[in-house]
Amino acid sequence: MAALIQREGLRVVVGLGKTGLSCVRFLRSLGYQVAVNDTRDNPPNLAELHAEFPEVVVSLGKLDEQLLLQAHEIISSPGISINEPELLSARLNAGIKIIGDIE
Questions:
Q1: Contact status, residue 11 vs residue 32, Cβ threshold 8 Å
Q2: Alpha-carbon distance 12 to 10, whole Å?
Q3: What are the tens digits of pLDDT across the range 34-56?
Q4: Residue 22: partners with Cβ closer than 8 Å, 6 or more residues away
């Protein structure tokens, strides 16, 4: 089996719905370090995420500005406005690229 290439820069997936979990799977398959942030305390797919990717850092209950500011790139669910203060701070103050989860 080929070794997984570790790519640089943390990717933070915002939203752990179906597409959020799919994004985590895709990014991990490419060798990226991934973290997940969801505004819900108990989002869908949480148990599945922990079972498949126990190494993935998860922050729940609110947008986690400290986590977001560590990101090289943020992949956001369409259910989260990119105009949320924490995302605006990441984009405008730290220059972090934010893309939609379907991009």
A1: yes
A2: 6
A3: 999 999 999 999 999 999 999 99
A4: 101
| Model confidence, pTM | 0.91
Cα pseudo-dihedral 12, 16, 19, 25, rounded to 10: 60
97 within a domain of the structure (yes/no) = no
| Beta strand ranges found along the chain (DSSP E) | 10-14, 33-38, 57-60, 73-76, 97-100
Determine the Cα–Cα distance for residues 72 and 39; give it in Å rounded to an integer: 20
Q: Give the span between the Cα atoms of 55 and 82, in whole angstroms.
A: 27
Domain that holds residue 3: 1-78
